Amino acid sequence: MGALGGNGATGGRERRWRGISRLDARNRPPRSLLVALLLASVTLITLDFHGGTDSPVEPARRVIGEAFGPVESATAAVIRPFTAVPSWLRTQGSLNDEIRDLEAENSELHSLVATAGYDRNRLEEYDGLTQSAENLGQALVPARVVAYGSSQSFSNTVTIDAGSQAGIGADMTVINNDGLVGRVLRVTRTTATVLLIIDEESIVGGRVGSSLEIGFVHGKGSLADDELDLRLVDDAVIPAEHDTVVTWGSSEGPYQQGVPVGRVTDVYSSLIESSQRAVLQPFVNFSALDVVGVMVPTGTTSDRAVIEADGAMR
After folding, report:
1. Are 140 and 306 in contact (CB under 8 A)?
2. Sign, CA torsion 220/221/226/232
3. Backbone φ and ψ of 7, nearest 5°
4. Do 255 and 173 contact (CB within 8 A), yes or no?
5. What is the DSSP pairing of strand 260-270 with strand 275-282?
6. Helix residue ranges, H only, the chain
7. What is the pLDDT of residues 74-120, one digit of tens each?
8. How many CB atoms lie within 10 A of CB 135?
9. Residue 310 contacts by C-beta under 8 Å, 6 or more apart in sequence?
């Protein structure tokens, strides 16, 4: 019985394994089918070797394309938004960088436009100083007005950003590209205080251009009313309107000669004093002073460029 039982168990296992083998054999395609598919593939490759519209498989390819083309297009349309996300993010980053660059450039252009007039005027003033140095035959140290005198000082002065280190000293003549500004009162190493010719304490020797008559130009002490008074030495001489007045100073005086001061606008006669008084409109706009030049001897040692008498920079 035991032997029979054992043989029965062994026979059952053999039958199971044979059943699995038959199932695997049933699922595997016949070898002849594989050979046929391989031959068909080789045949199609051979027929389609030259390609083009003359290929025998072209009609089949066209049919398949027409059948699956719409499906591919629809699938691509569905997945395109997802595949485009990385590219969109990169594009957005580039656009943001470009926008920031354009905003910075736009801000810089606005700044240039806003200061264009100021820079142009300053350049014209420097060019005017060069021309003035040539016309007057005097070397000039260019400087900028950095402050006006306080109202508590009861004087009309300005502070310029050049002092003894630039070769500037007291009583030197100060001009701009329009005419006479004033004279240096005092200096420090890096600054100087300039008394304007419109100050009440200012007296400038002047000469009428048409007659060469000399007189004295007095300031009235006001930026708002920047007119000047001219009193000639010869009371009998009456200057004509629009006559130009220049300085008649000397090489040792506080004002060099030949610097334009102003133009005669009115003439008044005093019967009591038997004198003539002319009113001058100064050439310089004292409420808009910026770039000035201080007359210095040729060859002056300076910590900045000097405009020589021939207009050259040193």
Report:
1. yes
2. positive
3. -65, -35
4. yes
5. antiparallel
6. 2-27, 31-47, 58-83, 85-136
7. 666 666 666 666 666 667 667 777 777 777 777 666 665 655 555 56
8. 13
9. 133, 134
CA distance 80 to 45: 33
Of the candidates 239, 283, 279, 290, which has an alpha carbon nearest to the alpha carbon of residue 261? 283
Per the CB < 8 A criterion, the answer to whether 264 and 242 are in contact is yes
Q: What is the largest CA-CA distance in the chain?
A: 171
* C-alpha distances out from residue 302 to 65, 125, 169, 181, Å: 88, 20, 12, 21
User: 265-289: b or e for each residue (b if 16 or more CB lie within 10 Å)?
Assistant: eeeeeeeeeeebbbbbebbbebeeb
Q: Do the Cβ atoms of 190 and 162 come closer than 8 Å?
A: yes
Give CA–CA dist 109/255, Å, rounded: 44
Element (H, E) at 282: strand 275-282
Q: Which helix (H) or strand (E) holds 206?
A: strand 203-208
- 306 CB neighbour count, 10 Å cutoff: 22
pTM over 0.70: no
* Rounded-to-integer distance, Cα 237 and Cα 168, Å: 38
Cβ-count burial of 195 within 10 angstroms (0-12 exposed, 13-18 middle, 19+ buried)?
buried
C-alpha torsion sign, points 284, 286, 290, 294:
positive
> Which residues share a beta bridge with 276?
269
The single residue listed with the structure tokens 């003035």 is 132
pLDDT given at position 94: 74
Residue 211 is classified by DSSP as T
**Digit-coded pLDDT (tens) for 207-241:** 998 888 999 999 988 877 778 999 888 877 888 88
**Alpha carbon separation from 270 to 8, 231, 274 (Å, rounded):** 159, 12, 5
Backbone phi and psi for residue 188, each to the nearest 5 degrees, phi listed first? -115, -170
- In one letter, which amino acid is 22? R
**3-state class (DSSP) for residue 119:** helix
Residue 197 CB coordination number (10 Å): 29
